[in-house]
Amino acid sequence: MLKNNFLLFILIVPLLTIAQIKKTQRDTIYIYEDELVHDTIFIKKTDSLRILNDVNSQKTDLLLHKKNKVIKLPVKNIEIKNQNDWTIQLCLHSGINQSSLLKEYGGENEYKTGLNCTIKKSLFKKLQLGIGVTMYYVWNPFEINSETNKSSLEGYYFDNSNYPMMFDNFKENHISYKFPIQLYYQATNYLNFSVGTLFGRDQYSLFFKKTTQNSNPPLNAKIEFNTQKINLAYLIEVEYKINKKWALGIHSNFLENDKTIFTNNVSSTDKFILDKKNIEINYYLLLRYRLF
Fold first, then answer.
1. How deeply is 31 buried, as exposed, middle or buried, from its count of CB atoms within 10 A (0-12, 13-18, 19+)?
2. What is the pTM of this model?
3. Terminus of the chain with fewer CB atoms < 10 Å: N or C?
4. Per-residue pLDDT reduced to its tens digit, 220-273
5. Does residue 101 contact residue 292 with C-beta atoms inside 8 Å?
């Protein structure tokens, strides 16, 4: 009888143990938590920077040395980026030029495309100074001549040697160069404003014909006068950053001159002056790309 009870006990205990294990596996829920903390640390003007990586404990410490003080920052993942105060960017301009001087002689609005390269230097946290160069191409340059267009330029003029010459044509070259100096302000993470000045000259040319035989150059020879004066314009830009590299924006600049001076290509003392006020306003759409 005792033997039979012992055998029964031996059989029941394993069954109860197995049942308890199965019950524990069914009823127990294991929850694993992992707290992830991401932060960005900007470091400027520190004496030294060290990274201690302990392979055994899989821990990384960032040590900052500043004025004989050591700051220890425990981190899991570290990425060091050099904060470059200099940036270079390219910009594509496309828009319209309105000139009161050209409209005075029958001209229309001009369509321009420009390619700009600018170097920028950080002054403060949200302020940058930029210096660049822009090459503009005019798709429909202004041009009039004495044969097909009637204007107030028609007639006879005298050079500095008192030889008569007759107006032939007035035109604009396709290509011109401008040099902007700008202050950039970062209003938000996506919106930038810029104001500045624009230096350059408009590529206008006047042509006259000699009307006397005993002169140098000879009869019917063409004499070319070009604009030489450097003009100063004022500009404003608004940009919207798409991402770290690309931005869209609008640009406008304003120029006003009381007169336009043309200089003889052969003799710099021989000048022709258009005593008419010229107001130029340009509007452009911008596509900007940051190289680095």
1. exposed
2. 0.70
3. N
4. 788 899 997 889 999 999 999 999 899 999 999 999 999 999 999 888 888 999
5. no
User: Considering only CA atoms, which of 274, 154, 149, 159 is closest in space to residue 212?
Assistant: 159
d(CA 92, CA 202): 20
Residues 6+ apart with CB under 8 A from 65: 46, 47, 48, 49, 50
Query: What tokens appear for 236 in the block?
Result: 């404003």
As a whole number of angstroms, the distance between CA 89 and CA 75 comes to: 34
